[in-house]
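Model: You mentioned two targets. I'll fold them one after the other.
Researcher: Yes, keep them separate.
Model: Target one:
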Amino acid sequence: MRRSWLIWILVPLLAIVPALTFSGYHLFQLTMVVVYGVAILGMAILVGFNGQISLGHGAFYALAPTRPRF
């Protein structure tokens, strides 16, 4: 019970600190790591538990930008 307030403080702090300290390009790289991580975890759950292949994940990879547009 005591750790729950600590989580409510640390999670937003961990989300705000990179936005304030990283440059635009490094923030883009970090964002792409998170996007690909979410896609890979989704694919691992789908294939690992169900043994299915998803074409939707291929579309998700195709929509992810390859370079920053700023």
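Model: Target two:
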Amino acid sequence: MKSGLWLPSYVYSQELHRPTLFGNPSYKSSTHLWGYKLKQGSREEELNRLFVESAKPVKDEATKRDRSPLEAQREWRHEAEDNVLNLLERDGLLAPQGEVDKLLNTVANNLEVTNNIDEQIDLRCRVLLTNTLEMFSIGNTLVLSRGLIDVIPNEETLAALIAHAMADAMLPKPNQDQYAFSDILRLSPTEVLKQLSFEEGKTESVENSQKAIELLRKSPYASKLGNAGLFLKQLQSQSKETKAIDHPSAWK
């Protein structure tokens, strides 16, 4: 807050939906604090100041505004997102950023720009190193599995899948905020697949599909959605044969 004075900025609060020994909800908290009214230094303190002339104007740190509650919440959620991504990459489940990510990000950017949401949400794509057909979102990150990417026949089908994941990312998910607590993610590689959950509910899936269609209709891929539809129909028709890879054991 000023020289020699450190004050708290936030303490986060959340009820965690996980079983406890006594059957009660597990609870963690964090309170956001701002707007400290600091008194001005005394006249004696001013006599001890050293003034240095500079060609560049000195920035007045006193005019720096405090973070709003919404900004603090977004920062907390971004921290939760990074914590999960770092954990998955540490355990070899998430590929390091590379050329495939750039391709996915290009398609996502096409959807963002044509729908005028590129300034509202900063999306990024990553690749999950599993051979199952799966995708999910964590914060603003869209995660597609290697197995899913390998069977996508064309760019418009990829756009349709990314649009669905994008719609999912645009929905608030308070249950993911808990991952900003570092102790929640102290998991072994085998525990990661059992403890982390990114599965969307049936209602969310329907809403995401409807939102994805809206995004695609305004995109450069609007005239080629028939090709994406054929792929999804073919995948649905072979659901019994591909059950093992359509219903992964991870992220339940």
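Researcher: Noted. Anything on target two?
Model: The CA atoms of residues 55 and 74 lie 37 Å apart.
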